[in-house]
Write a structure and sequence with these properties.
Mean pLDDT: 94
Largest sheet: 24 strands, parallel
Low-confidence stretches: 1-19, 409-413
Helix content: under 10%
CATH architecture of the largest domain: 3 Solenoid
Number of domains: 2
CATH class of the largest domain: Mainly Beta
CATH superfamily of the largest domain: Single-stranded right-handed beta-helix, Pectin lyase-like
Number of strands: 31
Distance between the termini: 29 Å
Bound molecules: 2-acetamido-2-deoxy-beta-D-glucopyranose
């Protein structure tokens, strides 16, 4: 190769680096380390709420309360600023199924109403800095277990609410609000009565190597939802659930600088942005994702009820196997109408493979502001279906996808 073309390549390399630098978590995130332990607790077999909460409240900054092994039963817990919870391998923290313990005051928790805001979460962090949840143990929300004082489960309540077009008052499993530098590492989250893990208006949110498992019939059991949150890394996670595997939302503040790296989904609604895009979602890198048997693969959902700009989103090295809609970019989600303007621009999908003959949907609302998407090295299956309106698609797809998705390591084989 001549010197000239070498320097040309070097220039491209530099440009590529500069070019992609903003569309990701701005922090340099590496694999988290488990903090030193302040106290180790043993299960009592009874209600351990007070013991765990007391240990968390007196744990020194930067240290973790360890649950050693066996089953711990608890009602709602708050992780204070600076403290962490370590659920060790072999330990399970089980959430109480008594709606009264979660009630926010109106006796709504465990009932159906118009709002669905009557319960506090199982685990809360609020205004915390440097807190986290660590360990190879399990946190079980027990959505499948009858509520105390009722003959139905949280999940059954959700199903009943859907039947009457209302909302269930069920607790979320982990809710992080207005916090900084929060880490969730290795833990298995299962059977949440509602969303599993939500970070709301938080700056610095690292989720690494966690597993989420809930069945397809667990309604609203979203896996990981960053909402109005910035500097997010979600890496090496394995998610199976009944709703969005990951949903990036911007309900009350913008969400930006998000990296979603080397994850695997099996079951669920897919890799979602929205539908709460109100304050805008931008600068997102989704790289290395394998998806097996979900409703959607890459999914952006918004409408004129929400509005908001979704832009600077890069998807790369993605393999989707057997999704109803391997790619769905939709500005008319559920046909809900309001007075806001949604826009989906500057979406890049590169090194993408879809196996199975699903439907590729691009539904923009406005011919003068079409959905803008660029395709590079996109391979789909012969027999796939298309539904396209008000979309400007640059690049093309090849109907030659074959082989399989590798579900570990390099997703595209
Ligand atoms: C995101 O991370 C970068 C790099 O650490 C930092 O400069 C910036 O302030 C962070 N943004 C927010 C909103 O915390
Ligand atoms: C991240 O690493 C790069 C390369 O080493 C460095 O230039 C940059 O300043 C680092 N950013 C932060 C926020 O530490
Ligand atoms: C629960 O109890 C109510 C009334 O007490 C009854 O109508 C309903 O069928 C029961 N549901 C189940 C799942 O047993
Ligand atoms: C935490 O954020 C959620 C939205 O994700 C909100 O519904 C809830 O009220 C907030 N909790 C508190 C205590 O502010
Ligand atoms: C994901 O978790 C499931 C259990 O839910 C397990 O069977 C599967 O091997 C895991 N996959 C990867 C890639 O870790
Ligand atoms: C994909 O999911 C199907 C069932 O949904 C399962 O039979 C198959 O083994 C999965 N493939 C891989 C590679 O995990
Ligand atoms: C489009 O988004 C990419 C990152 O995904 C960014 O590097 C690029 O500058 C953006 N282009 C425009 C025109 O905003
Ligand atoms: C999109 O990326 C471009 C180039 O980095 C940047 O100028 C622009 O502000 C970004 N848009 C948003 C909404 O962040
Ligand atoms: C359609 O897009 C154009 C160009 O961005 C904008 O001026 C117009 O207001 C949009 N129309 C609607 C109904 O949002
Ligand atoms: C789609 O795939 C299914 C299962 O692989 C097959 O039965 C069906 O004939 C295919 N449909 C089309 C239109 O290719």
């Amino acid at each position: 190769m001549q010197l000239q073309s070498l320097s040309f390549l070097a220039t491209i390399a530099v440009l590529v680096l500069v070019h992609d630098v903003a569309a990701r978590d701005l922090r340099n995130v590496t694999e988290p380390k488990i903090p030193p332990v302040c106290t180790t607790l043993k299960m009592s077999g009874k209600d351990d709420t007070k013991t765990i909460q007391k240990a968390l409240d007196s744990c020194a900054n930067g240290k973790a309360v360890a649950l050693s092994s066996g089953i711990f039963y608890s009602g709602p817990l708050t992780i204070p600023s600076g403290a962490s919870l370590l659920v060790k391998e072999g330990a399970t923290l089980k959430a109480s199924t008594d709606p009264k313990l979660y009630d926010l005051g109106g006796n709504k928790c465990g009932t159906i109403d118009e709002l669905g805001l009557g319960c506090k979460p199982f685990i809360t962090m609020h205004g915390a800095k440097g807190s986290g949840i660590y360990g190879k143990g399990t946190i079980d929300g027990r959505g499948d277990t009858r509520m105390v004082g009722s003959n139905i489960t949280w999940w059954h309540l959700a199903r009943n609410a859907l039947g009457v077009h209302k909302l269930q008052n069920n607790p979320r499993l982990i809710q992080i609000n207005n916090s900084m530098d929060i880490t969730i590492y290795q833990i298995t989250l299962t059977k949440s009565p509602f969303y599993h893990l939500v970070a709301h208006e938080t700056n610095g949110f690292t989720v690494w190597g966690i597993t989420i498992i809930s069945p397809s019939y667990a309604l609203n059991s979203d896996g990981i939802d960053p909402v109005g949150t910035q500097n997010v890394t979600i890496a090496h996670c394995n998610i199976t659930t009944g709703d969005d595997d990951i949903a990036i939302k911007a309900l009350t503040a913008p969400t930006k600088h998000v990296s979603v790296l080397n994850n695997h989904f099996h079951g669920g609604v897919g890799m979602s942005i929205g539908s709460e895009t109100n304050h805008g979602v931008s600068d997102v890198l989704i790289s290395g994702l394998t998806i097996n048997t979900t409703y959607n693969g890459l999914y952006i959902k918004t409408n004129t009820l929400r509005g908001g700009l979704v832009t600077n989103i890069t998807y790369e090295n993605i393999c989707v196997h057997n999704a109803g809609s391997p790619i769905q970019l939709d500005e008319d989600y559920y046909h809900y109408h309001g007075n806001n303007t949604p826009a989906i621009r500057n979406i890049t999908i590169r090194n993408f493979k879809a196996l199975g003959n699903g439907t590729f949907t691009f539904h923009g609302l406005n011919a003068s502001d079409p959905i803008q998407v660029t395709l590079e090295n996109v391979h789909i299956t012969e027999g796939s279906k298309f539904s396209i309106r008000n979309a400007k698609i640059s690049g093309t797809w090849n109907k030659d996808a074959r082989g399989r998705c590798a579900f570990a390591g390099n997703p595209v084989v």
